[in-house]
Amino acid sequence: MRFKPLALAGAAMLSMAMAMPAQAQTEIQWWHSMGGALGEWVNDLANQFNASQKDYKVVPTFKGSYDESMTAAIAAFRAGNAPDILQVFEVGTATMMASKGAIKPVAEVMKMAGVNFDPKAYVPAVAGYYTAPNGQMLSMPFNSSTVVFYYNKDAFKSAGLDTSKPPKTWPEVVLAAGKLKAAGHKCPFTTSWISWTQLENFSAWHNVLFSSLNNGFGGMGTRLEFNSPLHVRHFENLANMAKQGLFVYKGRNNAADATIVSGECAMATASAGLLGNLKRNAKFDFGVSTMPYYPDVAGAPQNSVIGGASLWVMSGKKNEVYKGVGQFLSYLAKPEVAAASHQRTGYLPVTTAAYELTEKSGFYKGNPGADVAVTQMIRKTTDKSRGIRIGNFVQVRTIIDEETENIWSGKKTPKEGLDAAVKRGNEQLERFQKANKG
Amino acid sequence: MEKRVRFKSAWLPWVLVAPQMAIVLVFFFWPAGQALYQSVLQEDAFGTSREFVGLENFRRLWEDPSYVDSFYTTALFSVLVAVIGICVALLLAVMANRVVRGAAIYKTLLIWPYAVAPVVAGVLWLMMFASPWGVVSYTLQALGYDWNHLLSGRDAMALIVMASVWKQISYNFLFFLAGLQSVPSSVIEAATIDGASPWKRFWSIVFPLLSPTTFFLLVMNVIYAFFDTFAIVDAATQGGPGKDTSILVYKVYYDGFKALDMGGSAAQSVVLMAVVILLTVFQFRFVEKKVQY
Question: How much is the pTM?
Answer without folding.
Answer: 0.85
